[in-house]
Design brief:
Blueprint: H1 3-79, H2 87-160
Helix pairs in contact: 1-2
């Protein structure tokens, strides 16, 4: 008479433990996912910083080449005997304006890329937060599932035992 209730209790305990262990395993998977997302966020931030440095170098090199071009432009005008007034002066002014527009474009494009990296980092941080919340929920669900199984098993055992 005692064997069926003991079997039910043993089965209930095993089932409850399985529920808790499954919740823990799922939580570990979510925690690993969160770590990967955090690493990806850090990588995106580093890429953004490196891109800013690269953009600053690119702008600096462009400005240096532009100054050399302006210098050769002035030298050519002076060698040709052109007066630094009128259309010659307009050419130099147009060149200066074009240089500034191009340098500003380089800076703007760099900042846009940096913004993209920042948004990627934010998305990865949000993904990490969601995975951490899912890990916590998986642990809770495992424990609740185990507790529910124990309660159900207790009810079955009470139903088997003559009162």
């Amino acid at each position: 008479m005692c064997l069926p209730p003991m079997i039910a209790v043993a089965g209930g305990l095993i089932s409850a433990a399985g529920s808790v262990m499954a919740g823990q395993a799922q939580a570990k998977a979510y925690e690993a996912q969160a770590k990967v997302a955090q690493q990806n966020a850090r990588l995106a931030e580093l890429q953004g910083v490196e891109d800013l440095k690269k953009g600053a170098r690119e702008e600096s090199q462009f400005r240096q080449q532009a100054r050399q071009f302006q210098s050769s432009q002035r030298t050519a005008m002076a060698a040709s005997g052109a007066q630094m007034s009128g259309s010659a002066l307009n050419v130099l002014a147009d060149t200066s304006q074009g240089i500034e527009v191009d340098a500003t474009t380089i800076r703007f494009n760099t900042l846009q890329r940096k913004y993209g990296y920042d948004m990627n980092a934010l998305n990865f941080r949000n993904e990490a937060s969601a995975a951490k919340a899912s890990a916590k929920n998986a642990k809770t669900a495992g424990w609740l599932g185990g507790f529910t199984t124990l309660l159900s098993t207790g009810g079955q055992v009470l139903g088997m035992t003559p009162v």
